[in-house]
Amino acid sequence: MPVIAFLAGAVLVMATLIDAFEVVLLPRPVRRRIRLNSYFFKVTWDAWAWCAGLWPAGRRREDFLGVYGPFSMVMLFVLWAGSLVVGFGLMQWAMQGLAPGARFDTLVSQVIVSGDAFFTLGYGDIVPQHTLARLLVILEAGTGFGFIALNIGYLPVLYQHFTRRDLQLIEFSARAGSPPTAATLLGWHAHGTTEELERWLRDWEIWASDLIESHAVYPMLAFYRSQHEGHSWLGSLAVVLDVCTLLIAGADDAQRHQATATFAALRRILDEASESLQVPPAHGAPPRRLDAEAMCVLVATIRRIIPRWHDDDGALRAIRLLRATYEPRLQGLAAYLLLPLPDWINPAMAAERFSRDAVVLQLTRGRPD
After folding, report:
1. Cβ(225)–Cβ(49) under 8 Å?
2. pLDDT tens digits, one per residue of 81-112
3. Considering the domain boundaries, does residue 171 fall inside one?
4. Are residues 355 and 232 both part of a single domain?
5. DSSP assignment of 179-216, as one string?
6. pTM above 0.85?
7. Gap between the Cα atoms of 143 and 117, Å rounded
8. What's the structural domain count of the chain?
9. What is the DSSP string of 29-94?
10. Same domain, 184 and 91
11. Whether residue 116 is found in the same domain as residue 182
C-alpha cells in the first residue's frame, strides 16, 4: 500500500508540473490531447454553458458567460495547487515507514503537512522523521515558491494578449456596426479607395497573425469575451472573412491579392482554435443566410469600392466554395462558445445599404449619398 501511494503521489505531482509548465512557460502549442487543463476546461465549460442555457439570450446570460474566462484561470491555479499538495502528501504518508519506530500519522495529517510546506506557513506541528522526508519537504517548499511566482507572472501576459485582441474589435465596431455585418463594413469603405481597404485588410492580417500565436499557445483566451457589449472576436473574424470572400470571388487579380492573404490568415485562426479546443466542424448546420436580397445589397455596396466587381455565375460559385472552407469551423466554434454569428446584411437597414456609422461619415465629409 505505501508503494502504491508513493507512486500515485509522484505521478500526480509530475502530471501537474508538466501541465503547468506547458500552459505557463512553453511558447508553442501542445498537440497532446491527454492534458489536465484540457479535461478541466472541457468539464467546467460544459457545466457553465449548461447553466447559461437556463437563461434566455440577453445581457444577463452574456454577463454570466463573461465571468467564466477569468474565473476558470483562478480555478485552474487552485486545481494545480491542490493536486501538488495532495501528491506530496501521498508521498510523505508513504515514506513514514522508512524510519523505524516513527509515529505513523494519518493521510489527512500528511496532506495538511504538505499544504504547510507548499505555502511555507511553517507551523511545524508534524516534523518529518528521516532525511528523505525532510528533503521532500524542502523540494515541495521550493516548488510552492516557484509555482506562485510563475502564476503571478503569467496573468499579465494573458491579459496583454486579451487587450491587444479587444482593441482591434473596438476599431472594427466603428466601421462594421453593432451587430457587425459585411454590408456595413463595405459601406464604411465605400467613399474611400481600394488602396485604403487593402491597407485595412493588411492590418487585420497582422491582427490574425497575433491571434494565431496567442490562441494556439493560450487556448483559454477563446473563453474570454469582449469587455464591450456587442463585440465578439469570432463575429468580427466572420465579417472580415465574408468581405475577403467577396473580394476574392469577384475582384480582379490585382485587387484580390491582399484579400487572399488576409483570408488565409483568418482561416488559420479557426483551424488553430478548433484544434486547441477540440471542437469539430459543424458540417450539418445550415450556412448563414445569403439570399438574393442580401446579394443585391452587397453587390451594390461593393461596386462603390470596386466598380468592375463581377457578379456572374463564376463569382457566385467561388463564393459558395470559399464559404465551405470556413463556415463549418465558424459554426462549430460559435455553437461551442455560445457566440452568435453575424448576418451578411443588417435586415433593418438593408435599404440604406450601409450602417448608421457610414451615414455619419458621409455627413461629416459633406458628401451625402
Report:
1. no
2. 999 999 988 888 887 766 555 566 788 888 88
3. no
4. yes
5. TT-HHHHHHHGGGS-HHHHHHHHHHHHHHHHHHHHHHH
6. no
7. 10
8. 2
9. ----S--HHHHHHHHHHHHHHHHHTTSPSSHHHHHHHHHHHHHHHHHHHHHHHHHHHHHHHHHHHH
10. no
11. no
